[in-house]
Automatic annotation (TrEMBL):
InterPro entries: NAD(P)-bd_dom_sf, P5C_Rdtase_cat_N, STEAP_metalloreductase
Signal peptide: none
All copies of domain Pyrroline-5-carboxylate reductase catalytic N-terminal, residue ranges: 2-90
Keyword Oxidoreductase: yes
Entry keyword set: Oxidoreductase
Gene Ontology terms, MF aspect: oxidoreductase activity
Protein name in UniProt: Dinucleotide-binding enzyme
Lineage: Bacteria, Bacillati, Bacillota, Bacilli, Lactobacillales
Length: 207
């Protein structure tokens, strides 16, 4: 699969490396442009390409890996037909006060979906610490099914299948939490943030 990343920082680089290892290719875009992007894609190798926003948005799957508040400065037009995974987290101290999200009336990813009319949106890959992701993936891949690390995802049914395939390819077990509204159950202000447990442990945290 060809995956576009909006953002080329820690999350995009670690996920890109893992996705490339299992046979995918990536297009990365950032804010500062090619000078900063070029060494990143060179390090990732021939299956990584530097692109602009439009090119990243046209890939089979687009992963948002930038600060949450920066999403709302993006032109939504190129994403009108996109399948999007929102891997971002909302932090009030970094992204500003949003009372509807802070009081759990709205999931942060519901606001993301509203910003991209026509796009199909899922929240996923936001709970794991990227600094340790490669080790966790390796550990989970070699574990028996009951001990694999389960990752929550929620939102559009078709994009959930794509996200679940990616999770499984990396060695994780997808855990379907439900709709985009349900995605607030694993936002940064919940007990699932930075949680790396198995399916049963994740289910228990959700109850
Ligand atoms: N770090 C974690 O463990 C972790 C885990 C899961 C989820 N997350 C979430 O994932 C997101 C990214 O985190 P990160 O650690 O990868 O951040 P990061 O290392 O600071 O990288 C952010 C990236 O976003 C780009 N960016 C900023 N504004 C942009 C814009 N308007 N258009 C396009 N690109 C833009 C930056 O471009 P430049 O390089 O040009 O500045 C940079 O490449 C955050 O929402 C974070 O909360 C983080």
């Amino acid at each position: 699969m060809k995956i576009g990343f909006i953002g080329a920082g820690h999350v995009a680089q670690v996920l890109s490396e893992l996705f490339i290892k299992v046979g995918h290719s990536v297009v990365l875009t950032n804010r500062h442009g090619l000078t900063r992007l070029r060494p990143i894609v060179e390090k990732l190798g021939p299956h990584a390409m530097a692109g602009n926003l439009e090119q990243a948005a046209q890939q089979e799957l687009v992963i948002l890996a930038l600060p949450f508040k920066a999403i709302f400065d993006l032109d939504p037009q190129p994403f009108a037909d996109s399948a999007i995974i929102d891997a971002t987290n909302y932090f009030p101290h970094r992204d500003g006060e949003l009372s509807a999200v802070q009081t759990h009336q709205t999931a942060s990813t519901e606001l993301v979906a509203q910003h991209f009319p026509g796009a199909r949106v899922v929240k996923a890959f936001n709970t794991l610490p990227v600094a340790n992701l490669a080790n966790l993936a390796q550990q989970s891949r070699s574990a028996a099914a009951a001990k694999k690390i389960a990752l929550p995802l929620a939102g559009d049914a078709g994009v959930k299948l794509q996200a679940a395939d990616l999770m499984q390819a990396l060695g994780f077990l997808p855990y379907d939490v439900g709709s985009l509204a349900d995605s607030q159950k694993f936002q940064a202000d919940t007990n699932l943030f930075l949680f790396a447990g198995n399916h049963a442990e994740l289910a228990q945290k959700l109850t």
